[in-house]
Design brief:
By secondary structure, the protein is α/β, with parallel strands linked by helices. It is built from eleven helices and twelve strands.
């Protein structure tokens, strides 16, 4: 049950949000049904709801309330930009409604998981399964694969009702309480106008996985071969389309999640003292400045070393396979990626912020020997060493007999027709190295 004060605040929030973008009013609606009696609610100009955290845990903290506000702000700021990229320069009613619904499908899952107390459910919300689609996808993916939504009605307000979201808030006041324009049936962001909205596409609960895959590939094919003008297709959709036909088979999501987690653990264990400035706890402990001098601590930034085999056997086709595999490392990543390229010796090295910068370092053309490259990595100072080393190679080659990076994870990503795990140098049997993880990429 939500009280009358919260309903009044919601009405003000809805009105302010509508001045910026109708979709933001829809996000407001997503949060209202999870309010409980006694929650503290504030509304600012951007229509961000600042809810008390007492409904999330028995003893709510300011940290949880702050987290809720920050995540709400992230949703507000980002999704309307992604909607614009989906619909392009010439949006239609159908494309706007389709994009809003796709965004709601993504947001609903996020808010149910983050904001809603465990065991609580909101039955009115749109879910991917209602349209025969799987959970856990981005709004761009849902935008491509939603069934046809049609044109909707002829209302000038193209996306006022969003076609989804949280439905009307429970226990909304009647007209006797001074909320005539907010009475139940128009939805929480209609602002009292006669707005029937765009409606919802017909659910297709019987769609099989094969049908979904076929629809995905057809949409990707149309994006890649439809002859669109340069810049007319958003980058997110182009990336999804490329991945349909040349996906990165390396499970980067799992690998990088593991690397980030372990890197943080290592950073806490590799802290160093810094006497150039005193600790912020100096005064807390009751000491005056410099009596004694409490040093600060510092840790290490997670770093990825990308070692690329650029020997003569790596032709243009294999280089294209390698590029497709490493592309996800440079899309949406904030980790520093160092590129080391070479054959029997180091040919080029540098820090890459993008895939183009990484490709500019692919130099070589000789034989195959990984020892000089990894010898360079092992000589770095401890604070410069990587958390993850990735070797991309087309075939066999010698590695150091002993692990050169004992504090890092090493992955051998093998491409091409002659794939074999690197072998230990110095032995007569040429046995495979006992350290590191091999990942085989299917050769096209």
């Amino acid at each position: 049950m939500i009280n009358s004060e919260q309903v009044s605040l919601f009405s003000a929030c809805r009105k302010q949000a509508s001045e910026f973008r109708p979709y933001q009013a829809g996000i407001t609606r997503l949060m209202v049904p999870t309010w409980t009696d006694g929650d503290k609610v504030q509304v600012n100009r951007r229509a961000i709801l600042k809810l008390g955290a007492d409904r999330l845990v028995p003893n709510g903290t300011l940290n949880l309330a702050w987290l809720l506000v920050r995540m709400s702000d992230h949703v507000f700021r980002r999704h309307h930009m992604r909607i614009d990229r989906c619909v392009g320069d010439k949006p239609t009613k159908a494309s706007l409604h389709r994009a809003n619904l796709a965004a709601n499908l993504e947001c609903n899952q996020h808010i149910l998981r983050v904001y809603t107390p465990q065991g609580e459910d909101i039955k009115d919300w749109d879910r991917p399964k209602d349209f025969g689609l799987p959970d856990g996808q981005a709004m761009e993916w849902y935008y491509i694969n939603l069934p046809d939504v049609g044109e909707g009605d002829t209302n000038d307000d193209l996306d006022t009702t969003d076609g989804g979201g949280g439905g009307s808030p429970p226990d909304e006041p009647s007209s006797e309480e001074g909320e005539d324009e907010d009475s139940g049936e128009e939805g929480p962001d209609s602002d009292g106008e006669n707005d029937k909205g765009q409606g919802k596409p017909s659910p297709l609960p019987g769609r099989s996985k094969a049908e979904i895959d076929a629809a995905i590939r057809q949409a990707a094919y149309e994006i890649l071969t439809g002859g669109q003008k340069a810049g007319s297709v958003p980058d997110d959709l182009q990336r999804i389309a490329r991945d349909m036909f040349a996906p990165a088979v390396v499970p980067w999501t799992d690998i990088l999640a593991h690397v980030l987690f372990t890197a943080q653990n290592r950073a806490s264990g590799h802290q160093e003292y810094d006497y150039s400035r005193f600790s912020r706890y100096q005064g807390i402990y009751g000491f005056t400045i410099g009596v004694p001098w409490l040093p600060t601590f510092w840790g290490y930034e997670p770093t990825i070393d990308l070692v690329v085999d650029t020997s003569a056997s790596v032709d243009a086709k294999l280089l294209g396979v390698i590029v497709n595999q490493i592309r996800p490392l440079f899309e949406g990543m904030t980790i520093k990626v160092r590129v080391w390229a070479g054959d029997t010796k180091l040919a080029a090295q540098g820090v890459a912020q993008s895939l183009d910068e990484a490709m500019g370092l692919f130099k070589g053309g000789g034989g195959t020997d990984f020892r000089p490259l990894f010898h360079q990595l092992s000589k770095l100072e401890r604070h410069e060493r990587c958390s993850l080393a990735i070797l991309l190679t087309d075939g066999e080659g010698p590695m150091p007999a002993e692990n050169p990076l004992p504090d890092a994870d090493i992955y051998y990503v093998q491409v091409g027709p002659h794939q074999r795990r690197p072998y230990s140098a110095g032995g007569s049997s040429m046995a495979a190295v006992p350290y590191g993880t091999s990942i085989s990429v299917p050769y096209p």
